[in-house]
Protein: Cytochrome c oxidase subunit 2
Organism: Homalosilpha cf. javanica HomaJava01
Amino acid sequence: WANMNLQDSASPIMEQLIYFHDHALMIIIMILMVVSYMMIAMVFNKYINRFLLEGQMIELAWTIAPAVILVFIAVPSLRLLYLMDEINTPTVTLKTIGHQWYWSYEYSDFAKVEFDSYMIPQNEMENNMFRLLDVDNRAALPMNTFIRIIVTAADVLHSWTIPSLGVKADATPGRLNQISFLINRPGILYGQCSEICGANH
């Protein structure tokens, strides 16, 4: 919990997001190294050429190079964007409704089950609980199964998020948004509202 890295992935989409993050970061580090070298070389270089007014080859190179770099970032990014929006045939559907300041969950596939999930207040927490993350009623979802989440809100804008799954859906009053994912690692996954929705957000 006290590190600077991304959370461990619990879904294939989050795994791909982490790979893309590392891929983009590597390109950025390489750009930083090349630009830093050029800047340092120019600062400490004592030679100047007063007659060099233009260099068409170098200008062509530093026009084409950024375009090629952007392609290397854009192609995996677009692939991932389409993967995240892909909706597979779900086995389980869970409806989540955002309220100020709790979530309501509804299972309707097999038996109709509805419950509210409130964050545990700080004065009621036990030693092994996480502040601002633990709730009184947890939603249970199966592993290695395609799951569809239908998200809406009852009052103001909310955003249903589980970072380790790489999913985030805006909860808007009067509108249904859906996301689909597959959990490939068992455990307790913590989420939160990622929209500033009021005092107890």
